Amino acid sequence: MKKLFIHLPFFRLLSPLFSGIIVYLLMLLINNNVEQLSENFLGQELYVCIGLAFIIQEYSRFSLLIFAKFDKLDALIIRTIFQFLVIIVGSVLIVTFSINLYFSKVLGYTPNLRELLIFNSIFGFITLMYLLLYKGNQLMYTINKHKLEGEKALIKKVRHDFIDYSHKINADLLYDCLETLIVIMKEDPDMAERLTDDFSQLYRYNLLKMDRELVEVNEEIEMVEILIRIYNAMPYRKTEVAYRQDLEGYVPPGSMIFIFEKIIRSTIYALAEPMRINIGFDSGRIVIKYVPVEKLNSRLTTETLNPVVEKYRIYSDQEIHLKETIDEKVISLPKLQLYESSIN
Question: Mean pLDDT per 10-residue run, the chain (344 residues)?
């Protein structure tokens, strides 16, 4: 609410100046004293009108801020009418008291009912205009704020969809696999055919299964084994995976594939001994363990697993843990359960 332009200092200072001059001119026109403009325009009555306009404006602004903090009425129309009535009645009381004080202390007599009515009518109209300006500006600010929030949500969704689509395509794996096929298709056509079959099966899974909310752990591990066969045919460190046959539970589709690919890509290639990755259970969580021999500029960190972390946050309050010791690195995933049928 403080962002509305009527709260800015220049508006709070200049607005009473113009409205006070207008009140002064209207008073001269009503009382047929227009000739006084050429004689003494900058008189004390002008300063009184400007000062009174400043007091009324600040009173209205302060009242609106109070209503905004302690407003308990739900109906917008009733709330607005109530605020307008309270503020206008308050401004009438302020004008009446101020004019009586000025007339009695400075001019030496008490104002009559007509003079009070004129002053209260003019300042009441100015107060109403200020309130309408305030509400109009507030409504415009609220509408624009909702539009901006909607645009930000849309941009976030488009960005998320683009990232998700890029993970489905997996351009790095695509180019690596095509380059490997170019090399081996003449030397070993059978191996090239097997690699093509594995590659197409993995991509079908990525493009078709990614729209599902959850998949079984065993189904995901089957795709992990295909991924490892693909990478074993390429210039990366050979990898073996061992897992229990009784693994149960669900995971977001593509989550374990993503983790295994990051593990393989972060591992130094020039090692003869295969890297062994174990999958098991520990305290109701899926645990992935391996001995890391990582590249200096491509280590596996928690930030690397952010896409998987974001997926898990949709389905579970438990976090993904990444622990590293001298001998091994452990990735712990929450084991999800399906309580109602949502898988097609």
Answer: 68 82 78 60 75 87 80 67 86 87 80 84 86 83 87 84 71 87 88 92 82 86 93 90 84 91 88 87 88 88 88 87 90 81 40
E strand map for the chain: 215-216, 239-243, 250-251, 275-282, 285-290, 321-324, 329-334
The pTM of the full predicted model, rounded to 2 decimals, is 0.58
Confidence at residue 195, expressed as pLDDT on a 0 to 100 scale: 92
- Assign residue 88 a region (left: φ > 0; alpha: ψ between -120 and 50; beta: otherwise): alpha
Contact yes or no for 274/239 (Cβ under 8 A) = yes
pLDDT of residue 333: 92
Residue type, 107: L
CB distance 230 to 177 below 8 Å: yes
- The encoded tokens of residue 326 equal 């001298």
Say how far apart CA 159 and CA 165 lie, in whole Å: 10
Rounded Cα distance between 64 and 13, Å, is 18
Could you tell me how far CA 37 lies from the centroid of its own chain? Answer: 57
Specify the DSSP class assigned to residue 284.
Answer: T
Determine the Cα–Cα distance for residues 27 and 24; give it in Å rounded to an integer: 5
* Token pair recorded at residue 324: 């590293």
Strand 321-324 to 329-334 pairing: antiparallel
Q: Which residues contact 325 (CB under 8 A, 6 or more apart)?
A: none
Nearest C-alpha neighbor of 119 from the set 97, 134, 140, 138: 97
- Find out whether 90 and 65 touch, Cβ atoms under 8 Å: no
Contact 46, 21 (CB under 8 A): yes
pLDDT of residue 342: 40
**Burial grade of 247 (CB within 10 A; 0-12, 13-18, 19 or more):** middle
The CA distance from 126 to 5, in Å, is 18
